């Protein structure tokens, strides 16, 4: 089993050192909040509906672009998904070049090959058609081409000196919200360690939420990615860096997921549900762009790195436990969210914040159960938990402004519960 984050071992979070860790983490959270106020973050122009792809292409053409680099993956290309865009570009006599080499968790080699092809074809704009991996890779290609540099030089905060090549995104899943965010993740070719590039200039110019493109998504992917949306929204809502603005997007996303994810899961052809989930994913992205995420993502990233659990499913596995540990610190905020989104028992609006928060958490558990998301984490070993807890604690301290900071023992307690639930599920199935 690979151990993805040795840097985390530099953190010792016992005793007095834990107090030091908390001080550093809280200071970083304040710096991130100041960053989000000082550095303006652009919003993509948003087109929604079954003609949104054409509207996005019209914008690209009206802005004077004449040779488009289309970034996608081989599966989507084989299914003919880019045709909706390429047929329209043909109609408008706009040239294009398709690169379908994006893989899940794209590496620098994958991004560099896209960059090479875009530069060689002298493309002046990029359309990404795909899920989070495709959009992240397209962001890196666009930024590297715009800055005439290699993708590795963009890793870190505000590394670009010039704007990216004009970037337009058509998400095919309702999950990451990457078409709204200022970051992109690329994996190292050998170690598969993930590297992050953050720059407001990475936010795409426009995004098209086309429910017809999303209707082919299999139900288990709909479930996993939908819970990713819910997690973005809930973590942004509970963040110490939440604002009036991020609350609006987070609450809207939570309401849509609770209402429309079960419908999109049961009937992939329900275009209304697909559209609402696509917009919810976008709103979730806007919310966490500024407010950040929390322990669900920090632990889920490790479940992905150690045990290969897909991102959305890992979130679904971790989310209820983190809601439980956040309950005390976040009960007032969760009660407010429940009231805004209608997640309260009828006639029980007068209950205490703790009771209302408990009811919201119960509904999140019920939603996850209704989507039949597999809680199995194969190969999970208690001997990994020290390293996982340290890596998750480091991710939180480096990046997020959580409502309550957990000790390594508390993180390991969550991991133990996940392991037990996984073993129970395997036992019940066997
Ligand atoms: Fe996520």
UniProtKB/TrEMBL annotation:
InterPro entries for this protein: ADH_Fe/GldA, ADH_Fe_C, ADH_Fe_CS, Alcohol_dehydrogenase_Fe
Annotated Fe-containing alcohol dehydrogenase-like C-terminal domain residues: 222-417
Gene3D superfamilies xrefs: 3.40.50.1970, Dehydroquinate synthase-like - alpha domain (1.20.1090.10)
Residue ranges that the Swiss-Prot or TrEMBL entry lists as coiled coil: none
Domain Alcohol dehydrogenase iron-type/glycerol dehydrogenase GldA: 46-211
GO molecular function: alcohol dehydrogenase (NAD+) activity; metal ion binding
Keywords: NAD, Oxidoreductase
Domain of life of the native organism: Bacteria
Necessary cofactors: Fe cation
Pfam families reported for this sequence: ADH_Fe_C (PF25137), Fe-ADH (PF00465)
Family that this chain belongs to: Belongs to the iron-containing alcohol dehydrogenase family.
Name of the molecule in the record: Iron-containing alcohol dehydrogenase
């Amino acid at each position: 089993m690979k151990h993805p984050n040795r840097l985390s071992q530099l953190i010792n979070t016992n005793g007095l050192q834990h107090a030091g860790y908390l001080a550093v983490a809280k200071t970083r959270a304040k710096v991130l909040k100041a960053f989000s106020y000082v550095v303006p973050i652009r919003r993509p122009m948003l087109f929604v509906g079954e003609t949104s792809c054409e509207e996005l292409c019209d914008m690209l053409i009206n802005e004077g672009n004449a040779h488009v680099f289309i970034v996608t993956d081989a599966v989507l290309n084989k299914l003919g998904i880019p045709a909706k865009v390429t047929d329209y570009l043909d109609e408008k006599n706009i040239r294009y070049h398709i690169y379908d080499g994006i893989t899940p968790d794209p590496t620098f080699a994958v991004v560099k090959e896209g960059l090479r092809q875009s530069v060689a074809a002298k493309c002046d704009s990029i359309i990404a058609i795909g899920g989070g991996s495709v959009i992240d890779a397209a962001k890196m290609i666009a930024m590297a081409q715009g800055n005439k540099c290699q993708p590795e030089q963009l890793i870190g905060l505000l590394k670009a000196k010039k704007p990216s090549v004009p970037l337009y995104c058509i998400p095919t899943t309702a999950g990451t919200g990457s078409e709204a965010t200022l970051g992109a993740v690329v994996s190292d070719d050998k170690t598969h360690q993930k590297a992050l590039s953050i720059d407001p200039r990475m936010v795409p110019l426009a995004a098209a939420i086309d429910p017809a493109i999303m209707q082919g998504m299999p139900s288990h992917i709909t479930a996993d990615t939908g819970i990713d949306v819910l997690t973005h929204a809930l973590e942004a809502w509970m963040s110490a860096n939440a604002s009036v603005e991020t609350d609006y997007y987070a609450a809207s996303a939570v309401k849509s997921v609770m209402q429309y994810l079960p419908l999109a899961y049961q009937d992939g052809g329900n275009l209304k549900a697909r559209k609402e989930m696509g917009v919810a994913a976008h709103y979730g992205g806007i919310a966490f762009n500024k407010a950040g995420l929390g322990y669900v993502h920090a632990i889920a990233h490790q479940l992905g790195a150690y045990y290969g659990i897909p991102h959305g499913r890992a979130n679904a596995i971790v989310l209820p436990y983190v809601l439980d540990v956040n309950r005390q610190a976040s009960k007032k905020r969760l009660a407010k969210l429940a009231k805004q989104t209608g997640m309260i028992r009828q006639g029980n609006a007068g209950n205490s914040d703790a009771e209302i928060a408990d009811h919201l958490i119960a509904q999140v558990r019920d939603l996850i159960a209704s989507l039949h998301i597999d809680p199995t984490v194969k190969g999970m070993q208690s001997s990994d938990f020290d390293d996982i807890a340290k890596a998750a604690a480091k991710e939180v301290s480096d990046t997020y402004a959580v409502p309550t900071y957990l000790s390594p023992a508390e993180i390991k307690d969550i991991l133990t519960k996940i392991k037990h639930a996984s073993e129970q599920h395997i036992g019940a199935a066997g």
